[in-house]
UniProtKB/TrEMBL annotation:
UniProt keyword annotations, A-Z: ATP-binding, Kinase, Nucleotide biosynthesis, Nucleotide-binding, Transferase
Similarity field: Belongs to the thymidylate kinase family.
Role noted for this protein: Phosphorylation of dTMP to form dTDP in both de novo and salvage pathways of dTTP synthesis.
Listed EC numbers: 2.7.4.9
Alphabetical list of PANTHER family matching this protein: THYMIDYLATE KINASE, UMP-CMP KINASE 2, MITOCHONDRIAL
Annotated catalysed reactions: dTMP + ATP = dTDP + ADP
Gene3D superfamilies xref list: P-loop containing nucleotide triphosphate hydrolases (3.40.50.300)
Thymidylate kinase-like domain span: 7-187
Cited InterPro entries: P-loop_NTPase, Thymidylate_kin-like_dom, Thymidylate_kin_CS, Thymidylate_kinase
Name listed for the protein in its UniProt record: Thymidylate kinase
Length: 217
């Protein structure tokens, strides 16, 4: 049974870059590693509709915090069997964004705290009703919000087709999401959280696989 590790952080924080490095590092050590990135664009209709809404389609869909969160949750629910089977067949499964993304963005959009109603709703929906696997560890990429936002802006200007979406263009939202993430990490939401600002994959690889005493809330 492998370990499930969720990498979290605001837009442009460097999650994808770090996950790529971690996977390379662990594979070089001979570990069996699987990786998933949520939303699963091009793989589930829920992810694609959410992306389209964040780029201006589907009327006022994106205005509803709960509707957007439900799409992201359904994207994961549609992937649950694949995820469970990956955990059973690998030493490590790394997810680039997971349920905590829904908790952090939804709470920030509603200006709620990490212990507010929408975080409880996300928890009950995704870990309760949808029975998604609970991560053994979370890693928060805690680079300063201004740094992450500058990276997202620069990526958008250099990569055609990677225009910033509605959330990425909202600097105030990004700062609030960052604050909710830090509160989720401080409370050990669902499992122990590690925080990284500028550690390399090699620095983090052992920390993330160290034994933990998981909590459930
Ligand atoms: N440590 C770093 N130093 C400088 N630039 C970085 C670093 N890590 C990532 N970047 C750059 O910042 C941009 C965002 O990185 P990345 O795509 O990994 O972030 P992300 O957190 O996965 O973003 P998103 O959630 O918005 O998809 C990319 O252009 C990437 O090359
Ligand atoms: C998985 C997930 C994502 N979000 C938000 C976070 C981002 O701003 C967008 C799109 O994700 P990407 O990493 O930039 O491609 O959606 C969310 O609110 N809830 C989620 O579960």
């Amino acid at each position: 049974m492998g370990r499930l590790i969720a990498v979290e952080g605001i837009d442009g924080a460097g999650k994808n870059t770090l996950v790529t490095g971690l996977v390379e590092h662990w594979r070089a050590q001979g570990l069996r590693v699987a990786t998933f990135a949520f939303p699963r664009y091009g793989r589930t209709v829920f992810a694609d509709v959410a992306s389209e809404a964040l780029h201006g389609e589907h009327g006022d869909l994106r205005e509803s915090v709960y509707a957007m969160a439900l799409l992201f949750a359904l994207d994961r629910s549609a992937t649950a069997e694949e995820l469970r089977s990956a955990i059973a067949g690998h030493d490590v499964v790394v997810v680039d964004r997971y349920v905590a993304s829904n908790a952090a963005y939804s709470a920030a959009r509603l200006r709620e705290d990490a212990d507010g109603a929408v975080v409880r709703w996300v928890h009950d929906l995704e870990f309760g009703r949808f029975a998604l696997p609970v991560p053994d560890r979370h890693l928060l990429l805690g680079v300063p919000a201004e740094v992450a936002m500058a990276r997202a802006r620069s990526r958008a200007s250099s990569a055609p087709g990677r225009a910033r979406d509605h959330y990425e263009r909202d600097d105030d939202l990004q700062v609030r999401v960052d604050a909710v993430y830090r509160a989720l990490a401080a409370s050990g939401w669902m499992s122990p959280w590690a925080e990284s600002v500028d550690q390399t994959p090699a620095d983090l690889a052992d920390v993330l696989l160290a034994p933990t005493t998981a909590s459930t809330e």
